[in-house]
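haha ok so turns out i had the wrong file open the whole time. this is the CORRECT one, sorry everyone. sequence first:
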Amino acid sequence: MGGGGRHRKVALVPLALAAAALLGGCGTYPQSDFNAVGPVSQLQRSALVEDMRFLGVIGIIVIGLVIYAAIRFRHRPGEEETPAQVEGNPRLEIAWWVVIALGLIFLVVPPLRDEFVLAQTPKGPDVVHIKVVGHQWWWEFQYPDYQFVTANEMHIPVGAKVDLQVTSADVIHSFWAPNIAGTLDAIPGRVNTEWIQADKPGVYWGQCKEFCGLNHANMRLRVVAESPADFQKWVDSHQHPVGVAQLTGDALAGWQVFDGPGTCKNCHTIDGTDAKGIIGPNLTGIGSRLGVAAMTLVPNDAQNLSTWLHDPQAVKPGNDMVIPKLTEQQIKELIAFLQSQKTYESPQVKAALENPLAQ
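then structure:
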C-alpha cells in the first residue's frame, strides 16, 4: 500500500509540472508579443501562431504514428518472421518528399511574403522619423523632423507609420517593444531600419533584448501611442520648453545647482537653458516622464529622484553618471527644478503616471 502510494505521487509530478508551465502563461503581462497593437506586431504574431499550429499538427501526427508503430509492430512471443521492409519503395519515398516539400512551402512562403511588407521603407508626409541610439544603459530618441531629442520615452501618433533608424553609441543593443514590433539590433557604426505603427492608444513597455553589460536588464523604455492631436501638442511643448525664466523658490535654486560648475549641465541638455551636455540623456521635459534612470525607478516621483541623486551607482552600478556629493537641501532643490520641467501630458501619460506599473 505504502509503495503504491509513493508511486502514484511520483507519477503525478510530471503532470503537476506541465500544469504549472501552462498556468504560468495565463497571466496578463504588459510586455507581450501576443498583445499586438499594430500591423507589424500583428503580422509577426500571426506568423508565429500559424507556425505553432502547423508544427503542432505535425508533432501530433508523428507521435501518433510512432505510438501506432510501437503497438502494431511490437515483437510478440513466438514470432520469428522479420516484418515487411519498405526500403527502396519509390512511391513511399516520393510521398515523403512531397509531404516535406509542402510543409516547407507552408512554413516559408507566408513569412517571406510578410518580410517584403515589413522591409518597405514608409514614405509620405505623415511618416514620423525617429533615430534610436542605444547607450549603456539608456535610450536616446532623436526627432529630426521636429529638431529635438528625448530619452527613454518614445512618443508616436496612433495610426501613423514610424520610420526607425536604429544604431548604438557603444556596444550592441537590441530595441524591443514587443506589443508594437519585434527586436532590431542596435550596432555601433551601422544603421538598421524598421517601421512600426500603433493602432491603439496606450503606453507600451519595452527594453533592450541584447545582453549589453551589467545593467542590461535595467535598459528599459516606454512607447507612448497617443492621438495625432495629442502627439502634436507633445511636439509643440518640446519645441517651446519651460526653461528657467519663470522659475521661483526651490525650482530656481535647483536650476542654480544644476547650472553650477562640475554638476549636471556638463553632461545633460535641457532645451531652453544653457545646459548643452551630450554625455547623458537629454532631460528636457523630465518632469513629465514616467520613470527615472531609463525606467529603472518607476514612478518618476520625488522619492525615486532622491534615491537616484543620492547614489546613482547604487541604483545602476557602472553607469556614467558622476556627481559631486550633494546636501539634502541641494537634492530637494534639484528635485523641484527637475519636476518643473514638464511637457504636454496626454490622457495616456496621465493614466500611466497615476498607475505606473499597469500597461
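The radius of gyration is 28 Å.
again sry for the mixup
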